[in-house]
Amino acid sequence: MIGKVGLEEHFAIPETLQDSAGFVPGEYWIELCRRLLDIQDDRLRQMDDNGMEMMVLSLNAPAVQAIASPTQANSIAVRANDFLAEQVARRPDRFQAFAALPLQDPDMAAAEFERCVKQLGFKGALVNGFSQIGSAENCVYYDAPQYADFWGVVEKLDVPFYLHPRNPIPSWAQIYGGHPWLMGPTWAFGQETAVHALRLIASGLFDRHPDLKIVLGHMGEGLPYSMWRIDNRNAWVKAPKTYPAKKTFGEYFQNNFYLTTSGNFRTQTLIDALLEVGSDRILFSTDWPFENVDHAAQWFDTASISEADRLKIGRTNAVNLFNLDL
Ligand code: MN
Fold it and tell me: How buried is 95 (Cβ within 10 angstroms: 0-12 exposed, 13-18 middle, 19+ buried)?
């Protein structure tokens, strides 16, 4: 299929490049660096060769979220966003942008998000999970009360918020002890991000801000497969609800969330997501440069789904959700 749009497509600036070390064996690190730092050259060739018209670009992970000093986090976010704006300006027909946000300080994050959307024309934000605030051990999730006003700003800006994975810090990752292979995309990324999404839902965030649009990668980080069970465990027990959200988890998942195919090129998994949320809420992505564009495209272009759904998932859902000029 030609004209595909991708939404989880990363780059790095020199200050954040090292954050991506360790996700590939040493002999691949030079190639990963080259891919992360390139925007206008090989990246465009990959897109041309695989029917990808546009990437909405985002900074690598955890980057800004792992900088404990709020002012330092803000300064790296601003630097990355300004760099990205310059890159997009060179090829706005091929690249658009997600903002990096210093959520260590909700007011700074809101101000930077407003600047990125209103002045730089960014299409949303991509945030790498929890933020470490003040010290490396202080991990804060965005259902916390201090983010109440921030979410109001996001809803008013009316652009999506992409909740992207990061690894848990070592002291919070004891369950993976002795099994480092479980970290990252194998398992820990999905677990971490799915729990964060469930925390947002349970907090009542989407009752207060029903127009918020949250994007999850990797075909929903396992949530489509588990959504029924989350709402229906022990259904014979009439126990009072223990969280503020008014509706079922499934209702919020179907109304406030969008899922991308990033890094999860599996038709069986796509069909489960289709059955849970429908083809209007699933969008093509690759997870470049951690996954290959050709792997994503060759799978998606031939996956056993209807051509109408292929067009929606590959292109038109993104054009509509992000108001792309395509
Ligand atoms: Mn990614």
Answer: buried
Q: Checking DSSP bridges between strand 131-132 and strand 139-140, what pairing results, if any?
A: antiparallel
In a domain, 132, yes or no: yes
Catalytic residues: 287
String of DSSP letters for 130-157? SEE-SSTT-EE-TTSGGGHHHHHHHHHH
Could you tell me whether strands 139-140 and 52-59 are parallel, antiparallel, or unpaired per DSSP bridges?
A: unpaired
Question: What distance in angstroms lies between residue 247's CA and the mean position of ligand 1's atoms?
Answer: 30
- Spatial separation of the C-alpha atoms in residues 302 and 310, rounded to whole Å: 9
CA of 32 to the centre of ligand 1 (A): 13
Residue 139: give the domain boundaries: 4-321
Inside any domain, residue 326? no
Q: Residue 220 belongs to a domain with what CATH number?
A: 3.20.20.140
Indicate whether 231 belongs to any domain.
Answer: yes
Instruction: Measure 65 CA to ligand 1 centroid, in angstroms.
Output: 14
Look at the pTM and tell me if it is higher than 0.85.
yes
Tally the domains of the chain. 1
Residue 196, in any domain of the structure = yes
pLDDT in tens, the chain (326 residues): 999 999 999 999 999 999 999 999 999 999 999 999 999 999 999 999 999 999 999 999 999 999 999 999 999 999 999 999 999 999 999 999 999 999 999 999 999 999 999 999 999 999 999 999 999 999 999 999 999 999 999 999 999 999 999 999 999 999 999 999 999 999 999 999 999 999 999 999 999 999 999 999 999 999 999 999 999 999 999 999 999 999 999 999 999 999 999 999 999 999 999 999 999 999 999 999 999 999 999 999 999 999 999 999 999 999 999 999 99
Ligand 1 center from residue 97 Cα (angstroms): 14
